């Protein structure tokens, strides 16, 4: 009987010692600066598109639109200078602006347009037609 108590006491002592000297597990985050943009104006607010391709910067009287792959400004959208907050709505693909001074909201609908060059491509019809239909196909 004495040996069972002695063994269980040694086991408890061993476990206590292991807790004191065992390495502790922890989580950490590594980070690095991907890029830094120089802006023409002080940003009042920023928003990022749901797909991560666009950064919208609300400045005094305009929204600066940056393309993320190139990190360059591609568009300026004029707005009232009173707007001081902005939120991106991924459900509507829209920017919702708010003005605390004017107690108002403005919703700006965003549509991405894709431009394709037809230079040197085969075509049918007139070169100066008002509508161009492009067909993308894969015969495999």
Tell me the radius of gyration.
30 Å
DSSP summary: helix tally: 1
Instruction: Kindly name the structural category.
Output: alpha+beta
Give the fraction of residues assigned to helices: 10-25%
Order of helices and strands: HEEEEEEE
Kindly report the average pLDDT value. Answer: 84
Strand content: 25-35%
Number of E-state strands: 7
Q: How would you sum up the major sheet?
A: 4 strands, antiparallel
The gross shape turns out to be flat
In whole angstroms, the N-to-C terminal distance is: 81 Å
- The main sheet orders its strands as 1-2-3-4
Low-confidence stretches: none
In short:
It contains 1 helix and 7 strands.
Any chance you could write out the topology, listing elements then pairs?
Blueprint: H1 2-21, E1 45-48, E2 54-59, E3 62-67, E4 72-78, E5 85-89, E6 94-99, E7 104-109
Antiparallel strand pairs: 1-2, 2-3, 3-4, 5-6, 6-7
Structural summary, described in words:
This protein is of the alpha+beta class and 140 residues long. 14% of the residues lie in helices and 29% in strands. The protein has one helix at 2-21, and strands at residues 45-48, 54-59, 62-67, 72-78, 85-89, 94-99, 104-109. The strands form two sheets. Strands 1-2-3-4 form a four-stranded antiparallel β-sheet, with no helix packed on it. Strands 5-6-7 form a three-stranded antiparallel β-sheet, with no helix packed on it. The protein is flat.
């Amino acid at each position: 009987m004495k040996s069972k108590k002695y063994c269980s006491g040694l086991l408890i002592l061993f476990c206590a010692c292991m807790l004191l000297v065992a390495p502790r597990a922890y989580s950490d985050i590594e980070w690095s600066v991907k890029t830094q943009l120089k802006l023409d104006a002080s940003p009042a607010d920023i928003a990022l598109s749901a797909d991560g391709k666009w950064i919208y910067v609300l400045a005094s009287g305009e929204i600066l639109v940056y393309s993320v792959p190139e990190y360059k400004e591609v568009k300026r959208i004029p707005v009232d200078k009173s707007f001081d907050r902005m939120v991106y709505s991924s459900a509507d693909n829209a920017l919702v602006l708010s003005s605390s001074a004017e107690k108002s909201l403005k919703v700006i609908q965003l549509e991405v347009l894709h431009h394709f060059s037809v230079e040197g491509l085969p075509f049918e019809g007139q070169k100066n037609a008002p509508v161009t239909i492009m067909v993308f196909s894969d015969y495999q």
